[in-house]
Amino acid sequence: MNLDHVFVCGHPALDFAATLRARRSTRFEMFVTPERLNAWYLESGLVDTITPGEEDDVREATTVREAIYHLVTDRRLGEEFNREALAVLNAAARKPPATPQLTVAGRHTDATPEQALATVARQAVELLSGPDVPLMKECGNPECTRVYIDRSRGMRRQWCGMESCGNKIKAAAYRARKKSAPAVTAR
């Protein structure tokens, strides 16, 4: 499994929720160490610098991530929010977020892992209470469980991303068609 963080969902909270990959099959955890968690915060552009994290930060982040995923799924399916997940997300969102500062070089956001997580939680609150809720879709790849924002024309997007899932599905369909097509004999 590729260890690179992928940002194809169209919203930081959805990309965060997607860090546990293949939830329906061979689950793959992206946040295996505090360093991997901090790498996600940096690569997402959420923060510019972050203090070193600890195992407790990873446990807290995965707990919030799972709450976000459950709430996104509830909202996407039109179901009532899971109360426990709601309490977890709101508790994280109440903590102080990362605060950007203006420097002579431009904007700079320095944070602790707790502040970065609070920022993600607040973004999840905004997403789940905002106008993009009807645009949330789950990837059409049966192995993928990413939820993304579909801003395509006509809302016809089927995959979280072409590179991550779309090309795999299209290539598999092509191979299946080729395999089942009758052989053409040359004369």
Order of helices and strands: HEEHEHHEEHEEH
Helices and strands: which structural class? alpha+beta
Which strand order spans the largest sheet, edge to edge or round the barrel? Answer: 3-5-4
Provide the residue-averaged pLDDT: 89
The helix tally amounts to 6
Helix content range of the residues, please? 40-55%
Morphology = globular
Q: Which runs of at least 5 residues are low in confidence (pLDDT < 50)?
A: none
Strand content: 5-15%
Radius of gyration equals 19 Å
Q: Give the oligomer, counting copies of the same chain as homo and different chains as hetero.
A: single chain
Report, as a whole number of angstroms, the end-to-end distance.
46 Å
Q: Say how many strands there are.
A: 7
Give the biggest beta sheet: 3 strands, mixed
Provide an overview of this structure.
InterPro entries: ABATE (IPR010852), ABATE_dom_sf (IPR023286), Znf_CGNR (IPR021005). Residues 137-178 form the Zinc finger CGNR domain. The chain has 187 residues and is an alpha+beta fold. A hairpin with an 8-residue loop joins β6 and β7 (147-149). The protein has 6 helices and 7 strands. The chain has helices at residues 12-17, 34-43, 55-76, 83-94, 113-128, 162-180; strands at residues 20-21, 28-29, 49-50, 99-103, 106-111, 136-138, 147-149. It is globular, with a radius of gyration of 19 Å. α3 packs across α4 (83-94) and α3 packs parallel to α5. The mean pLDDT is 89. Strands 3-5-4 form a 3-stranded mixed β-sheet. The protein has a two-stranded antiparallel sheet with strand order 1-2. Strands 6-7 form a two-stranded antiparallel ribbon.
